[in-house]
Amino acid sequence: MTDTAELRALLGGYQPGRVPVDLSQDDYSDVTHDLTPASVLVGIVDHASEPNLLMTVRNERMKKHAGQVAFPGGRADPGETAIETALREAKEEVALPPGSVDVIGTLDDYRTGTGYRITPIVGVVPPGLNYRAHEPEVDEIFEVPLRHALDLANHREDAAVWQGRERCYFTIDWQPQRIWGATAGIIVNLSRTLAALR
């Protein structure tokens, strides 16, 4: 089982691009236009029993990605680093104090068909914090065992027609939630990166 000590050892100093992770699994390799920089916080809650991933469910009334499971995150403000974006968005969306996050690594960027280049920031979060959902953006805050999320047996490949062609994406079930699309793809890339670094 992956614990936070192992995560720190493996991801500390990791340089994106060093591990040949297949980043085309989102199947948007044909996206060549300028992508908007964005960042998400892959928050690992350091419970004594086992670490969990901090997740949100987006507000059902949002214009884009309504009701989807997502990491806290969003588009970068001018002049922000990827880490600054992830921490700011986590504070805005779930009231996570930036100073409580121990940033341990940056994963490879993830392209999306909706025009974003997402930089995932991995950070360890202490247990017992009082989260608060920012209602216009977030309906629910929940956690998924990291062990379950990283297990290859739980990474199911699906496909759907979007913009006239079939697109592939991953799905990870954690009842009653269904993690899919870019969020599941980022988890799959984290799993593959860790496996390659071991």
Give structural notes:
It contains four helices and eleven strands. The two termini are 12 Å apart. 22% of the residues lie in helices and 34% in strands. Strands 1, 2, 3, 4, 5, 6, 7 and 8 form an eight-stranded mixed sheet that branches. It has a three-stranded antiparallel sheet with strand order 9-10-11. It is globular and about 45 Å long. It is α+β, with helices and mostly antiparallel strands.
Short descriptors:
alpha+beta; 11 strands; eight-stranded mixed beta sheet; 198 residues; 22% helix
Proportion of helical residues = 10-25%
Largest sheet: 8 strands, mixed
How many helices in DSSP terms?
Answer: 4
Q: Low-confidence parts, pLDDT < 50 over ≥5 residues?
A: none
User: Structural class, judged by helices and strands?
Assistant: alpha+beta
Separation of termini?
Answer: 12 Å
- Quantity of strands, as a count: 11
Mean pLDDT metric:
87
**Can you write the helix and strand succession as a string?**
HEEEEHEEEEHEEEH
Apparent shape: globular
Strand content: 25-35%
Rg over alpha carbons: 16 Å
